[in-house]
Design a protein that fits this description.
The protein has 646 residues and is mainly beta. The chain is built from 6 helices and 45 strands.
Amino acid sequence: MIKTGLLLVFVICGSAISVFAKSDSDFLSDKVKYLWPTNASNYISSTFGETRAQHFHSAIDIGTWGHEGYPVFASRDGILYRAGVTPRGYGNVVYLQHSDGSFTVYAHLKDFAPEIREVVDSLRFKDYSFVFNRRLDDTGIKFNQGDIIGWSGSTGVGPPHLHFEVRTPDNIPVNPLLTNISVEDNIPPRFSGLAIEPLSPHTLVNGKREIKRKRAEFNGDYFDFGTIEITGPAGLAINAMDRADGSNNIHAVYELELWVDGQKFFYSRADSFHFSQSRQMFIDRVYPTLRDTRRGYQRLYLVAGNSLPFYQPTGYNGILDMEDGTYTVTIVARDFAGNSAEARGSVIVDRQVPNSPAHHITGHHDISVPEGGSSDLTDWYWHKNWLAPDSTNKSIKAARIGSFRNQLMANSAGPSRQGFRLDPVKSMELKTPLSAQRVHRIIPGRETTIRTSDHVLSARFNEHSVFDTLSVALYHNLEAESPYIKIFPDSEPLAAPVTVSLLLSEELRDKENLALYERNPRNGNLSRVPGSRHLSGLDVAINKFGKFYIKQDTIPPVVTSPEIYRRSDGKWFAAVTVEDERSGIDYGKTRFYINERQGIAEYDPEKDKLIYHHPEFSPTSGEYELKVVVPDKSENIARKTFKIQR
């Protein structure tokens, strides 16, 4: 027998998928024609809804063969609504609004059309600001379909390409391929990997309590994942990819289906999402795998807090929670052109887990590390509702049960289980050789502040910080030469930033330019966490759990390699190379002068360049003095003067 569940979630989420059905009156009507927005190429390098570092991709990317400077055309008649300049993200970007209220967006431009550039610079030169993002619909600048609005580039992110969006009148991005825009595509998707996630404290996947990943073997007709053994509720996720004709880039698939013994368990299709839902990518994907490998395994089941409009109701929630037996699982992936691929496998369900007594904790409790287990909570398997010491079959025993003895004994009488199940509201404490650590329950919709027992470390969660009720623990070690804090669980994502406050020891308070840093798990680099230093400690805003280091930065940026150059479009610029390994460049406070004349200091983080921009800069022969003031985010300042002979 197959269990049903969460039908209401599917109905609520799935109802939005038909919002953008074509009609004769809206921007997706067959009567509305969009122009392909560049002559650089006719292929896409990325599709709508793909995985990005912090969000879903809200556009299609059009390839420019690794080059910059191709003309970018207005896809429809429209007015200039907004323009922006940023070092990351969109870079140089233009927003056009059309007569029906909808928008098209063109990002990563090398430069704007002259009429846009003149307006943008006239406003930026009032205070020599680099970053710019303003509505400009009051300028009255209009473009007809096919007019040049700029030139393709790589600003904000590389390599060179054109990011092209279509948005509703309410600024909601939709898949541009829902318009008349299309690409040649006769290549079906491919499956590269399957992930199986345990979803309860007693679930084992192939004998272990951990996410199991399996490679797909193609047998000529379908992809085969073989056999999977589970002991309780589990979720599947797929790493699938697609390509289009003439493109070597890997794209995301458009539709996914999960079938179990011929019954549709799950269906998703990437047509649109609201920008407020963008971080839900972290719960649509398998977060620990995405964090560690950047591989975007798409979940074939829904989790609490997921309100994305990708899903249609099937009568099931996608979770594999079946009675004992063997089941045939089929996964179907399709691209926008309708090309499809199929993956198959078998799931054996056996709920009997021997030699593992149950301990369902229902209130405030002290728990000890089991014999042979790790005292470092980062080695434990964390789930939002339970945790366990490792992926082996060791049992967990309570150090003290006190008044909870009767409840604990009653819960131990049933089938064997493993791990701690936490009460939806209350907390419990974990005693380790390191220190006493309390696990707190954070609930969506509530503002909650939690602290370590010594009140040295605290974390303030707002009502939007978590997707679902979550178990959280804090730990600090400020006595070692390399002080750090840990906030568990790093296996779960945050929906919105959390404010962390740390009281520094007397020894640390005497050190200047202290800040909190996080380490990139893929390359080991440290990056500064935004925040502020006060007399007794640090206040920072974190957007993910993990380990954070307290580091000192007293070294100013390094400034080298001055140059004056003429770009391919005939415009003149000057540049220096700027590097700061720890805190990073504070580009909002940089200053750049040539012969004492200030220009806008534009920062390109991809190339580590600080660029002098002034529309009247046109050097002739002679000597030029380049003067730069470059602070980092710890307020260390580099001041350098160079003389260049032309």
